[in-house]
Amino acid sequence: MADERSALIDVLKRSQSADGSWRFPFETGISTDAYMIILLRTLGIHDEPLIQALVERIESRQEANGAWKLFADEGDGNVTATVEAYYALLYSGYRKKTDSHMQKAKMRILEMGGLERVHLFTKVMLALTGQYPWPRRFPLPLAFFLLPPSFPLNMYDLSVYGRANIVPLLVAAERRYSRRTAKSPDLSDLVVPRNDWRLPESRSLWSYIKRSLIGLPNQLHHAAEQRAVRYMFDHIEPDGTLYSYFSSTFLLIFALLALGYPADDLHIVRAVRGLRSLRTEIDGHTHMQYTTASVWNTALASYALQEAGVPLMDRTIEKANRYLLSRQHIRYGDWSVHNPHSLPGGWGFSDVNTMNPDVDDTTAALRAIRRTAAKETAFRHAWDRANQWLFSMQNDDGGFAAFEKNVGKRFWRYLPIEGAEFLLMDPSTADLTGRTLEYFGTFVGLTKDHPAVARAVDWLLDHQEADGSWYGRWGIYYVYGTWAAVTGLSAVGVPADHPAMQKAVHWLLSIQNADGGWGESCKSDGAKTYVTLGASTPVHTAWALDALIAAAERPTAEMKAGFRTLFRLLHHPNWTASYPVGQGMAGAFYIHYHGYRYIFPLLALAHYEQKFGPFVD
Prior knowledge:
The chain is mostly helical and 617 residues long. It folds into two domains: 29-288, Glycosyltransferase; 293-612, Glycosyltransferase. Helix content is 50%, strand content 3%. It is built from 25 helices and five strands. It has helices at 2-14, 31-43, 48-60, 79-92, 100-111, 120-128, 160-174, 203-212, 217-234, 246-258, 266-276, 294-307, 315-326, 335-338, 359-373, 377-392, 420-423, 430-444, 451-462, 478-491, 499-510, 524-527, 538-550, 557-571, 596-612; strands spanning 26-27, 279-282, 285-288, 582-585, 589-593. The protein is globular, with a radius of gyration of 24 Å.
């Protein structure tokens, strides 16, 4: 076990950047690569080296049957990803419809239902670029954003991710903006005759807004556009991106074009430059990241190394924690609307994030700087501010969400917007609540007797699935959520013989693979229950082992079998090493975190040794 631990420590140390951060790629498939080609061609920006590099990466991901997938076991392909790839390759000008692999792609698109079957956001992109008609009206009108926060339903009841994307989308949609160029391909042959994509209106919402707002329609429309523009400009990060997200920045550019801003306007130029800065290299191919994960990677890596015995004075830890200190937020963001009495103090996800902190990054950063905060004044001040912010973010139901407080109204589930549950809501989740409890118990010394902790424990116990698992919102899925819940409950003193803990352990053992490891399919989100991958992944195996360690009083045969598989996967990585274990939007947006295969196995190894001593097989 010592050899494996040393090897993982060495990999992490060698992969640290000069500024102290870890910049593992944030890999999300080919959609952002395709959208970058489409954006550059639409704006007439002839960055041929970048476009050619993106063409090569997109083609490298095509399946033998002509389709593209979001994850390896998806089946015969994903129609949305295939349309995006096909469109981008044609728009690049470097591929033609008559190319054999393009013909195969077209055939698969038609077999899967054509353009009508793609995801809502892809239809928006197609409408923006002249390939698909706009619907007559969206179920959420732009005038909705004029309602003040004091109203029972307003823009701040949407998740911050929803606002970031919906605001620019609606600006362009209400103007029915479309921009074709001389290089635009013709995708009309991908339309399978059916009904159009007109979205049903939410009549109650429309009537609510009409009753609530006073003024002539034109005045309302102009006021709503001005409010939307002000909101977008107020949330542009220093690198020119909107909230540091690719999708919202892409939509920002088209919203400004729809409003009459020229393509060489400074906001658009800076936004394009910000998107270009998301470029990374993966296995010799160029990939446009959706965002960067530098703060998240750095917090996790620093914490894992310290848990594994790397001393605080080691230069790797010093540099990492200095980087984290420099990224603590001092700006107020949208989180303060529902939490007006707290000072800023959290951390965000990406390197350039300055106003959108989240609970998970904050607890991760606090784990990393905990020891330093006991020795240095600047870190102690950071620690105190962050803890105050973190406690203030607990939802009224006792749980913790990702970005904001009490933003989980079930109303949004019923809007006819695809993926509304993930796009528009930010409710308490088992993974965030469990990981926050783990932080409170392990690093702050709180127990289940503390009032705030007790409420969070009650929330977790109330949300355990009947089979003993928990659903994790930001990872894949039930193994992830169960790991977070079990380690959190254990850290605050819920005993191993508690019925909920026993049910969780029994469930984890019931899904252990024959080889001793664990592996969950991305299909679990559609099935709303655990679906096996049919193979073990290093990350799922590490999560399951960490949970079992937390809930056990002594090593077990199942743990030893799990570690044997983990060691094998570390020494002989296979396709499961790159299988997505994170998600942004179920069914559409999956994440391969390149650092997870080192960080979480190292944590499982360290926690085993801390609790049971050296591993003996």
